[in-house]
Amino acid sequence: MERPAWAPPGIDISVPSVSRIYDYYLGGSHNFEVDRQAARRAMEFMPGLPKIMQANRAFMRRAVRHAVAEGVTQFLDIGSGIPTFGNVHEIAQAASPEARVVYVDHDPVAVAHSQAVLAGTERTGVVAADLRKPQDILAAPEVAQGLDLSRPVTLLLVAVLHFLEDTDEPYAAVAQLRDALAPGSLLILTHASYEGIPLSEEVASGTVDVYREIRNPLVMRNAEQIRTFFDGFGLIEPGLVSMPNWRPDTTGQEGGSADEDPYAFSGFAGVGRKA
User: Fold this and answer.
1) Cα dihedral 94, 112, 181, 55 in deg (nearest 10)
2) What is the mean pLDDT of the chain?
3) CB contact at 8 A, 172 and 166
4) Which of 15, 60, 94, 234 is the most buried (most CB within 10 A)?
């Protein structure tokens, strides 16, 4: 298998990556054949996966604009993935030129491309770290230099927590991050669930099996389990809902219409504020 020039040295391009699979769903070009094969197998069970990812990105953009409108202009995006059009810093800095963003991911391809995309971009940073080790994220120089944790920060955990199994202690990880944030900070979160998927759980579980086979287990939690991630954060209206139903864009440019593809309503999204 030929290594593309953009692939950082040292990564195993024969092993699928959830970041690169996500990039493929969104129509990106920074993925390998092994990623595309895994994505196509997952789509055999759940053909609407690209639509789910598009709804996820549209929700993220609406939520970031909401955060800026609320005066929170610092962003810590964990599990940020491979840069695509409409990243957090582009949306936030278009709304507030003073917005500051730090991206965090553990995938070397995602980190390398984030660094390349952000080269020369002010008030942005990239950290190679894992959500399973929140202390490493909080101690990273890029976080200390890029964000003032004594002031409110928007923490983004978008389409990442469902890749942490219960043995990874995801609730403890979120709590540790929450405790490091100032009052008034926001949590923007999306999470996969069997609820809302226009398929039987039996059929949808085929996709879960594909992710398990590539050693990136996809954990489908229910609404109450997902709501628990917001402990210490007050959910703002409309609460924990499907992605298109979170403050839909009435212009139709950012998704959120009742006319959306049924797959767009899979899983949950919410925004909470720390008291």
Assistant:
1) 60
2) 92
3) no
4) 60
45: pLDDT strictly greater than 90: yes
For tokens 């389990």, name the residue.
Answer: 225
Type of residue numbered 50: P
For residue 24, give both structure tokens: 């493929």
At which residue do the structure tokens 């609820």 appear? Answer: 195
**According to the model, what pLDDT value does residue 119 have?**
85
Asked if 105 contacts 130 with a C-beta cutoff of 8 angstroms, the reply is: no
- The torsion angles phi and psi of 64, rounded to 5 degrees, stand at -65, -45
User: Token digits for 91?
Assistant: 């949306």
- Enumerate residues 6+ apart whose C-beta is below 8 A from 261: 48, 51
Residue 175: per-residue pLDDT: 98
Structure pTM? 0.93
User: What average pLDDT does range 230-248 have in this prediction?
Assistant: 97
Closest C-alpha to 126, from 95, 83, 163:
83
Percent of the chain having pLDDT more than 90? 78
What is d(CA 181, CA 183) in angstroms, rounded to the nearest whole number?
7
Q: Which residue has tokens 């290594």?
A: 3
| Element spanning 126, H or E | strand 124-128
pLDDT at 114: 86
The letter for the amino acid at 36 is: R
Please tell me the distance from the alpha carbon of residue 128 to that of residue 103, in angstroms, as a whole number.
9
The answer for residues whose C-beta is within 8 angstroms of residue 257's C-beta and 6 or more apart is 244, 248
